[in-house]
Amino acid sequence: MTENPRNSYAEAGVDTAAGDLAVELMKAAVTKTHGPEVLGGVGGFAGLFDVSALTSFRHPLLATSTDGVGTKVAIAQAIDKHDTIGQDLVGMVVDDIVVVGAKPLFMTDYIACGKVVPERIAAIVTGIARACSETGTALVGGETAEHPGLIPPDEYDVAGAAVGAVEADAVLGAERVREGDVVLALASSGLHSNGFSLVRHILAQKGISYTDRSDDFGGVVGEVLLEPTRLYTTPLVQLLADPVLGSAVHSLSHVTGGGIAANLARVLPVGSWAEVERSSWSPLPVFRTLAEMSGASLESTEGTWNLGIGFFAIVDADAATAVATALTAHGIPTWPAGRVSFEPRDLAGFEQGAKGVDGGAVRLTGAYSA
């Protein structure tokens, strides 16, 4: 029977050769994340990671997290800049691992696209690998899937999952929080990877293109918005390993979807409350610009954007200054933003728990610093 080339996989829109080239282009960056624990190299059906080091743990627990970057990828696609979106993915996934006190071990990624453009896929994965190296995480595998007819040729989405390990008696969480603990705020680098649906809505209403140069934004709009997510893992892992300062950290919170109060409330115990003082920091210019464009107050966006706080650390009051100093020395500006209390009070106006967690109560109070 004569073969019909019109019924080939390539004719259907899937270019396996392009996929192979993408792997070759990213291979060196991925391999740089591999230590002796990674077996088999790049390209296997499954990644292998030697966990024999966990035999030294008294009671090892595995921690896992999965996430994506959300609609921030639309901006990367609009200005054809794809080398930072991978760091956003690692930030969203790996920085969730350290919240429970775990050290990340390895990560895998998944890219779904309409058409494999090898250089674009390689730029995304190189960004992932670079951030994995910075956080001490091995990138042990991944998948690029071409979906012609389902996803437009120049569009893609990214997701990932990571695994870490922690001693059972070292797990951080609400149960460790005590009366008088200080809430430390760790600065964000910008929007990170949350609230971009609102960002895109505001810019569309104003008729602003991502390729426009704007004095209000201080540069090309899309490039400013693509400021990559700050990575907190390495400074926090090093802090937790300190025998004195590490024991002073009671719980951590990653400020992602849901905003400031909700994410802090998730890591406080039931019956506790905290007020975050807005006067303790000044929201970054990108947040002020977007709020002004939308005609909204900064306060009204606190449940959507991080406004300049990417993480919280709830720590023993006696060690708060030392912890803040240590994190700031690692390049993450850190400051006291509130205290935890269990004293009875009217909690009207507080957010209590979030995302299925029946946690503590949090509200933001006062006015932002200019």
Automatic annotation (TrEMBL):
Which reaction(s) does the protein catalyse, per the Swiss-Prot or TrEMBL entry?
2-formamido-N(1)-(5-O-phospho-beta-D-ribosyl)acetamidine + ATP = 5-amino-1-(5-phospho-beta-D-ribosyl)imidazole + ADP + phosphate + H(+)
Source superkingdom: Bacteria
- In Swiss-Prot or TrEMBL terms, this protein is called Phosphoribosylformylglycinamidine cyclo-ligase
In which pathway is this protein known to take part? Purine metabolism; IMP biosynthesis via de novo pathway; 5-amino-1-(5-phospho-D-ribosyl)imidazole from N(2)-formyl-N(1)-(5-phospho-D-ribosyl)glycinamide: step 2/2
- GO biological process annotations for this chain's record? 'de novo' IMP biosynthetic process; adenine biosynthetic process
Please indicate if the UniProt record lists Nucleotide-binding as a keyword: yes
Q: Where is the PurM-like C-terminal domain?
A: 178-341
What EC number(s) does the entry state? 6.3.3.1
Single GO term (MF): phosphoribosylamine-glycine ligase activity
Q: Where is the PurM-like N-terminal domain?
A: 62-166
Stated family: Belongs to the AIR synthase family.
Protein location: Cytoplasm
At the top of the EC hierarchy, this enzyme's class is ligase
Q: Name the keywords, alphabetized.
A: ATP-binding, Cytoplasm, Ligase, Nucleotide-binding, Purine biosynthesis
InterPro entries to which the protein is assigned, alphabetical: PurM-like_C_dom, PurM-like_C_sf, PurM-like_N, PurM-like_N_sf, PurM_cligase
